């Protein structure tokens, strides 16, 4: 299996809706360094850097390195968010999702 650390960081960052600048600030690293990691120019950042980024992303190292459960974790998170919505919010979400499908 080909594991790309930069791609994984970018995946979790975008899934959380974080900008590069926001995540870099949360992790206490420079925006340019984070961007270089995501682009693969620093393909082997230190474990400390990865741990700091995982902490800022709100994920564990295990989740970061476990490529088999990412889709399930994302689905579970979405289901939790949906279950917390009110009925009017659910209806709005349904309308929104229907509009996305019609854009295909």
Outline the structure in words.
- This protein has 104 residues and is an all-alpha fold.
- It has seven helices and no strands.
- It has helices spanning 5-16, 20-27, 31-38, 47-57, 61-65, 70-83, 87-102.
- Helix 2 (20-27) packs across helix 3 and helix 2 (20-27) packs across helix 4.
- The two termini are 32 Å apart.
The quaternary structure here is single chain
Number of helices: 7
Q: Briefly note the structural class of the backbone.
A: mainly alpha
Ends: how far apart?
32 Å
Rounded to an integer, what's the Rg over CA atoms? Answer: 16 Å
Q: Could you give a short account of the major beta sheet? A: none
CATH superfamily of the largest domain: lambda repressor-like DNA-binding domains
CATH architecture of the largest domain: Orthogonal Bundle
Overall number of structural domains: 2
Please name the CATH topology of the largest domain: 434 Repressor (Amino-terminal Domain)
If you average the pLDDT, what whole number results? 87
Percent in strands: under 5%
Number of strands: 0
- Poorly predicted regions are none
Strand/helix succession: HHHHHHH
- Overall morphology: elongated
| The level-1 CATH class of the largest domain | Mainly Alpha
Residues in helices, as a percent range = over 70%
């Amino acid at each position: 299996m080909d594991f790309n650390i930069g791609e994984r960081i970018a995946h979790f960052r975008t899934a959380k809706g974080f900008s590069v600048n926001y995540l870099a600030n949360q992790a206490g690293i420079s925006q340019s360094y984070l961007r270089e990691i995501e682009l693969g120019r620093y393909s082997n950042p230190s474990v400390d850097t990865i741990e700091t980024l995982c902490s800022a992303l709100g994920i564990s190292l295990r989740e970061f390195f476990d490529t088999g459960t990412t889709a399930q974790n994302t689905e579970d998170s979405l289901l939790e968010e949906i279950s917390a919505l009110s009925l009017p919010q659910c209806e709005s979400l349904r309308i929104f999702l229907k509009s996305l499908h019609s854009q295909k």
